[in-house]
Amino acid sequence: MSGHPFGTVLRRGLLAGLAAGVAGAAAALLIVEPRIESALVVEEGRAAPGGGHGHEEELVSRGVQVLGGLVATVAVAVCLAVIVAVVFGATRHLLPGRDDFRRVGLLAGLGFVVVALLPAIRFPANPPGVGDPDTVNQRTGQYLSFIVAAAAVTWLALLVHRRLAAWSRPAPYRAVVATVVAVVGYTLLLTLWPATGVEVPGDIPAALLWEFRLASLAQLAMMWTVLGVVFGLLLTPARAGHRRPVTADVA
Hints:
- By secondary structure, the chain is mainly α.
- 74% of the residues lie in helices and 0% in strands.
- It has helices at 6-47, 62-91, 100-122, 136-166, 171-192, 206-242.
- The chain is globular.
């Protein structure tokens, strides 16, 4: 298959991942961190004798924790960009779209659904002070296996779309059938997948809980949106300049 080498696409994906990481870190600082601070106030009040705001010496200051979280956000975005670039190289022929900008946009959208939206529905994010530490490993295993299962459903929907294209079915028909396959599969996963319950302490305000969950989801939406848009834009001029499709051959 002719076209740009995979290394070129990977480098552009890394640049897009860096931009997505910066956007995600900014969203974390502006909309997630205030909710974390509010949850920490509740947690400190719970731990202090008599409900007062006691203070214990921190091994790592809050400022360092925030900085570490922002750096981790950028690192995660770059890692996701590598995965997106590899998946794009392997599945470009499966992705519907008239150009690579649309194909990358679809891939980023599917990535958001599989990695962020569906897990957020089945395993909602919780602020500090919520959740039993003894069940962390169990919940992590359920979370990761759910993402793998959701990715498998997405892959099946893409295969169905490709098979219908091979049978010369109209584009709207292919899109509807593939969407139905995905929606039915996602619904079954959300309904049947095991999830360890998390008990929310009574002193955590419901408004704070849901504000944190929505803010966390908004941060991920920002990150995936920037990743898809920037990656698509970086691929588009290369494709136009060479007057041939951008492909990513993976040996």
